[in-house]
Fold this sequence. Notes:
Elements: E1 10-13, H1 20-27, E2 41-44, H2 46-65, H3 89-100, E3 104-107, H4 110-124, H5 133-145, E4 148-149, E5 152-154, H6 163-173, E6 179-180, H7 188-194, H8 206-211, H9 215-245, H10 255-261, H11 264-276, H12 286-294, H13 307-310, H14 312-334, E7 342-343, E8 363-364, H15 372-400, H16 402-405, H17 424-440, H18 462-497, H19 505-515, H20 528-540
Parallel strand pairs: 1-2
Antiparallel strand pairs: 3-5, 4-6, 7-8
Amino acid sequence: xxxxxxxxxxxxxxxxxxxxxxxxxxxxxxxxxxxxxxxxxxxxxxxxxxxxxxxxxxxxxxxxxxxxxxxxxxxxxxxxxxxxxxxxxxxxxxxxxxxxxxxxxxxxxxxxxxxxxxxxxxxxxxxxxxxxxxxxxxxxxxxxxxxxxxxxxxxxxxxxxxxxxxxxxxxxxxxxxxxxxxxxxxxxxxxxxxxxxxxxxxxxxxxxxxxxxxxxxxxxxxxxxxxxxxxxxxxxxxxxxxxxxxxxxxxxxxxxxxxxxxxxxxxxxxxxxxxxxxxxxxxxxxxxxxxxxxxxxxxxxxxxxxxxxxxxxxxxxxxxxxxxxxxxxxxxxxxxxxxxxxxxxxxxxxxxxxxxxxxxxxxxxxxxxxxxxxxxxxxxxxxxxxxxxxxxxxxxxxxxxxxxxxxxxxxxxxxxxxxxxxxxxxxxxxxxxxxxxxxxxxxxxxxxxxxxxxxxxxxxxxxxxxxxxxxxxxxxxxxxxxxxxxxxxxxxxxxxxxxxxxxxxxxxxxxxxxxxxxxxxxxxxxxxxxxxxxxxxxxxxxxxxxxxxxxxxxxxx
Length: 557
């Protein structure tokens, strides 16, 4: 039986059950054109609701006794020692949100905003933040109603978490600013009213609860991670196509080689490539070598290929291992408490002692908002995915270079070369994107700059790392799409030379899928429509999924 939180149309948040794949699924759920409501919605479990209520009761008790506790009745950051009078505490929370709405740059995409909202709503459901249930419910309701705050892309250093982006989100909850709703950008108050929702009226601790945490960087990284996992599968598929097109030597994928090293991702990629090309007559063998030598094409003895073909498992594999690592870090982060201070109810406490019965021990200040775990993971993901892009571009260079393949294929994969330039410039585009990736892969997490009068003297740069990871993933998807086009063109030439040749089951399925969108090019044409069509095919995950046709192992996500 499917668990309630994995219902196709509704995710029930209990604070412990959110995965990056869930974030992406909810963030990318289609919106009803007429009502704007999401096809996949979120709710909160009864257990989580109880935790939220218990934590809020502790905050209210502290207020009644007049205790001084950071974040509840003090200023923030460098103003941590300023005690705020009780009559000003509600305004304090509003002022916090207003003062932190300092983002700049273009607005985030709809899916990015939704991913941030999903992540924030879920972490608040753990019951460590002291938010009131009705305020948290409004965040769920806005997400489900398709009301998406306008959130600028830049302006967060990942210091006390993602203060600026989350404050722009919270601003809309107050009925201020603009939101995306039903295909337009109305004032937040108008959209809330249209959806039958009331703006939040913040009380003590709530502005801090909404804005203090890593939900922005975690949401962005969730989207990048899901896409990166798909690209790992796709890299094996298009790499196998190029292997056949270039008459690669299959011995490099013998399972004994990869078992001898023992790297998990490498073994998976080698197995997939082997099964994608199983039974192919386009790969190198002694008989083909003899025939090609007679035609003056490739050398008689071909012992091994260049690294971009021979070492695909050794390069694709680490990207897979990186995805697994980041998935573990991010799943933990999504289900963890990132606020400060944290409110500990009886359920959260260690075994009882007399001192722990004192409510002053129920609210503790720390640094869980710091984005270092996410920042390092985001940089790591970007570096891993860069490898997929780099080796793909090198395979493309071999496909168009006669000196690299010994005349097996026409120069630049086109007939009547000179009059036609063929795929010459396609490889240029991949080279440009791969080089851009190298700049984006410079780790943001190694940087820091002090903020808040040097109180926040070490920051994570997690939002920058997550944005860069997404950009690297997007560039790599385009590079692999271009390789799929080139490999299909090259395979047509190979099949024309030998009408009886047979492709592997996976490469045949991938080739046919590409050919449904892009024809064989007999002469120069406008590449743009074909590139756009192949990019769309890549984004759909169709090419990545052909491994199932070949019986290749499908890694758990």
